[in-house]
Amino acid sequence: MYARPAAATAAAVLGVSALLLPGPAAETAEAAETTAQTAGRHCVPLVIAHRGASAYAPENTLAAIDLAVGMGFAWVENDVQRTKDGELVVVHDDSLARTTDVEQRFPGRAPWKIKDFTAAEIATLDAGSWFGPKWAGARVPTLKQYLNRVDDNGQKLLLEIKKPELYPGIEKDTLRVLHEEGWLDRHHVKHKLVIQSFGADTVKAVHQQRPDITTGFLGTPAVADLPSYAAFTDQINPTHTSISAEYVAAVHRLKGAHGKRLWISTWTVNDAAGAARVDGFGVDGIITNNPDVVRDAVD
Fold it and tell me: Are 143 and 174 in contact (CB under 8 A)?
């Protein structure tokens, strides 16, 4: 899923410092999920902040999830990759070049792949200035730091295991960190966590290792192939350009790995017209850089 930079207009209005825990927002989101999963009809889709409120703060930073909670959004999405020395960090691209100052800090290390840098090296990088001077000094968070902030904010996490082909065994590593940080207890697993990936084998691996965890497959399988995916996943999460009302209905006709109706969240929808369009298709969730815009369009 690819984000587009945008001016930090909402950040200027809201301010990252004035944050409220999303008690009502979390309760509303949880109620919406329960209704969508147990009822046979469409309801207002869940709005998920893509890499945090990434239209208004640098993606996948703590600032972006803090801003999302300040805007009232319970669910955030992130991307997880692995460093040279085995630390899991929250970055979208497999290179650090786009969203940090790595080219200036380490000019001789092109193409600046995450897997070629240690966690200590990555921790020195500026992951905010590319987005705007206000965000100078923001850091690339480790998965541990990110999980703790999400918990502190009372938020919930759609965690994407990114580029698993580059990181053999990252599924086990991710589950280990989740366990160490208290995210694999019954409450988190039931109410606060979904793990997704573009890699079907990765989704299968997570389901096999922890069958209690809700999982999602990122992509648009052919309708004829949906039953095979339903055996190991609970969500089919496709790009919004690839779906129709008929496709959403085909997903909803099936039950996923936990015996509930398959859920469908689509990405990345950033404007009101697009949000209204996929809402009309009957999707359960909308993943967006502009959660405020989408919320206003579907409420």
Answer: yes
Looking at the DSSP bridge assignments, the partners of residue 80 are 90, 161
Residues assigned a catalytic role: 50, 92
**pTM, 2 dp:** 0.88
Q: Kindly indicate the confidence band of residue 180, based on its pLDDT and cuts at 50, 70 and 90.
A: very high
The alpha carbon of residue 273 and the mean position of all alpha carbons in its chain are separated, in whole angstroms, by: 22
- Mapped to the 3 state alphabet, what secondary structure does 117-165 carry? CCHHHHHCCCCCCCCCHHHCCCCCCEHHHHHHHHHHCCCEEEEEECCHH
> How far is the C-alpha of 31 from the C-alpha of 27, rounded, in Å?
6
pLDDT exceeds cutoff 50 at 130 = yes
pLDDT given for residue 239 in this prediction: 98
Q: Which two tokens stand for residue 96?
A: 């650090």
Whether the Cβ atoms of residue 69 and residue 15 lie closer than 8 Å to each other = no
pLDDT > 70: percent of the chain:
86
